[in-house]
Amino acid sequence: MKSKVIYGNYTLAEKELDDCSVDLFFCDPPYFTTNHEWDKQWKSISEYVAWTEKWLQLAYDKLNDTGSIYVCIGWEHSGYIQQVLEKIGFHIKNRITWKRDKGRGSKTNWKNMHEDIWFATKHKTNYTFNVDDVMIEKEIIAPYRDKDGNPKGWFETKDGRKIRYTHPGNLWTEFTVPFWSMHEVRSYAKTKRTPNNTCIKHPTQKPKGLVKKCILASSNKNDTVVDFFAGSGTTGIASKELNRNFILFDNKEEYIQMIQERLKNE
Prior knowledge:
Layout: E1 4-7, H1 13-16, E2 22-27, H2 45-62, E3 63-73, H3 78-88, E4 91-99, E5 114-121, E6 136-139, E7 155-156, E8 162-166, E9 171-172, H4 183-186, H5 208-218, E10 224-227, H6 234-241, E11 245-250, H7 253-265
Parallel strand pairs: 1-11, 2-3, 2-10, 4-9, 10-11
Antiparallel strand pairs: 3-5, 4-5, 6-8, 7-8
Helix pairs in contact: 2-3, 5-6
C-alpha cells in the first residue's frame, strides 16, 4: 500500500482502505475538553462517545488480525475510550501516561501534567511488539562486575556514564521538553526563526519522538500506519523516517498544507 494524504474525514476510510489492511493506527482525536473549533461539534458527552464508537469501529474493521492501535486522550474522558475499545472487541494492553506540562496551573485545582495513550490490539496474544527497539537506557549507581572485573549487565559510554538497558514502562517522561521551537515546527510554521513560512503552529501537535516510539514498538518496516486525525502530520513524518507506509486523513485544508510542507522539508 502506497503512502498518501487524504483531504477529508475518517469516513473516507470506508472506500480508501480495504478491511484488515492496516498494521497500525495512531490516532489523536479531539478530546472534547477545549475551546478549539473541533471540540464544539458535540452537545453532550453521550454524543461524543457515540462518535468515538463510530470511528473506532471503523479502525477495528480496517485493522489486520495482528494489528494494534494507539489512541491519545486527556484524562477527563480517558475512561470512555477504555469502555468503547472493550465494547468493540479490542484487547487493551496498557494505558500509557506521558508527562506534559500545560500552562502555569490553577489556583483552584491541581495542575494538569499528563495525558493518556491507550494501547490495544485486535488479537489477544498475536500482535507486533518490538521490545528491543524501544529499550530504555538507565544509568546505574552500583554497577556489578564478574569475578574477572568485567561489567555485568551494563556498559560504559564514551563520556564515562555506566548504563544498562531496561524494558520500557508505561510512564513516559522524556517528551516534556517544549517542541514548539524545534525543527519539526520550524519546518512549516511561521516563527521568529522562520518568518518566511506561511503556516501557523498546530495547537495540539504531538512530539515526533513520542509517535516514533509507538510506531517502532508496534509495526515493522514497510507496514502501513494510519492516522484518522492527522493534524500537522506527525504520524506521517515519523512513519516516513522509520520506513513505514502511511495514510493520513484530515478534513481541514490548512492542515493538509502543513502536512505537505513537512513532508517536503523534514
